[in-house]
Amino acid sequence: MTWGAALLVITLTTGCSDSKSSPPTSSSPPPATPTSAPSIPATPEVSSEPSAVVSYLGKTKIVTVGDVEVRATRNPLGFNVACNMTNSHDAPLNFKVTVSIGDGKEWAQTTEFDFGPIESGQVGRETVLMGDSYQGELPDDPTLHIDSVINY
Known about the structure:
This protein is mainly β. The chain contains one helix and eight strands; from the N terminus they run H-E-E-E-E-E-E-E-E. It has a five-stranded antiparallel β-sheet with strand order 1-2-3-4-7, with no helix packed on it. Strands 6-5-8 form a three-stranded antiparallel β-sheet, with no helix packed on it.
């Protein structure tokens, strides 16, 4: 294995870091890697955070992240926003879910759903009206985000 290939393997296995946590580097440039050296494909990074899944049920927009599902349905006053929180832990827990809705340009509103104790395996449900105080035109397909989920 050449020095260049060894350096590539070390970089791929240790990743990048800031200067505070990385070891001091030498001031000499790394040895050149021959162009005929085989390259090692980079592996994609896997996030431990679940990705949001967006779906629609008629005119209702649904965003699901992990154990949280948020639904937004337009009505004449604004949006009915429902939050369903499933407790997948082994003990009863309280949950606080922060949700934001907006038009993706100039208007956004945030609210918190504060669920009391939800028993293990059960679902807590809350609904609020959002966007009712906005003076502009509300979008038919709003941006809808689950900003944070905290259990306590």
